[in-house]
Design brief:
The protein is α/β, with parallel strands linked by helices and about 270 residues long. The protein has helices at about 20-30, 60-70, 85-95, 120-130, 140-145, 155-165, 215-230, 235-250, 265-270; strands at about 5-15, 35-45, 50-55, 75-80, 100-105, 135, 170-175, 185, 190-195, 200-205.
Length: about 270
């Protein structure tokens, strides 16, 4: 057995264990990566919601990143909750010379609708992080926040995808799910993957009827990063990550109150 690829997650910590850094590291490990982390914020959080956020100074966030980049051969990375403009700017300056693929999950709200991206951070995310992304993975509200456009119908979603690509990422995965009509097709749930110069590609997975969806976006982006870091191409990484998340949803559970997490260990339990 060789040394697993080092995968970096840059995100917030979830004290409830279902999302953020905790979800990312579980997904990365199950998919064969060695997880490293940069914690951008601590959240007091459980399945019922977020009750508090404490962010370290940007210089300490940068110190974490420097420690990982100088100590490990990072093969891929992802970002999640970045919280503030100063943190985003510090990270962007160091990441601009990266030599590995970066998946950006533009997290702005928790599942309980608690805002976890400061208002002044949206422009910084758009202008400083998106151009560094090899893949951007917004849900519909996040895509609308970044573009100022509606993605409620299929035509609108395609316009939003085009505008997001114009902001600099190498590819965009717009997650439809159950939130919009175009995201539902019978018993299938649809995401659209957009690559420059190509028509958006519909990628589907079977619908899973569960309320235990805490950490789905974190898990998907971490899984994509882990697969990219293992050497898979973009489309294969996305589709395999979708299948992994779908399996985790089918075996999801609620260990405490409120929304439970997906079961990151599902492939090992089947």
């Amino acid at each position: 057995m060789g040394i697993p690829p080092t995968i970096l997650t840059i995100a917030g910590s979830d004290s409830g264990g279902g999302a953020g850094i905790q979800a990312d590291l579980k997904a990365i490990a199950v998919l064969g990566g060695f997880g490293t982390s940069v914690i951008t914020a601590l959240t007091a959080q459980n399945g019922l919601g977020v009750s508090g956020i404490h962010a370290p100074e940007p210089n300490f966030v940068l110190a974490q990143l420097e420690a990982v980049l100088t100590g490990f051969p990072v093969k891929a990375a992802k970002t999640g909750m970045l919280f503030s403009q100063p943190i985003i700017s510090a990270l962007a300056e160091r990441l601009k010379d990266k030599d590995f693929p970066l998946v950006v999950d533009p997290v702005s709200m928790s599942q309980s609708r608690h805002q976890i991206l400061q208002d002044d951070a949206v422009d910084a995310l758009r202008e400083e992080i998106l151009p560094l992304a090899d893949l951007l993975t917004p849900n519909v509200p996040e895509a609308e926040l970044l573009t100022g456009l509606s993605a409620e119908d299929r035509d609108g979603a395609f316009v939003v995808l085009e505008k997001l690509l114009d902001m600099g990422p190498g590819a965009v995965l717009l997650k439809g799910g159950h939130a919009v009509s175009w995201g539902r097709q019978g018993d299938e749930r649809i995401d659209f993957l957009a690559l420059p110069g190509q028509a958006p590609q519909a990628l589907s997975q079977p619908h899973v009827d569960t309320d235990n969806t805490h950490g789905t976006g974190c898990t998907l982006s971490a899984a994509i990063a882990a697969l990219l870091g293992a050497g898979h191409d973009m489309i294969e990484s996305v589709t395999r990550a979708q299948a992994y998340l779908n399996q985790c949803l089918r075996m999801s559970y609620a260990p405490g109150k409120g929304f439970g997490p997906v079961n990151h260990m599902a492939p090992l339990l089947s």
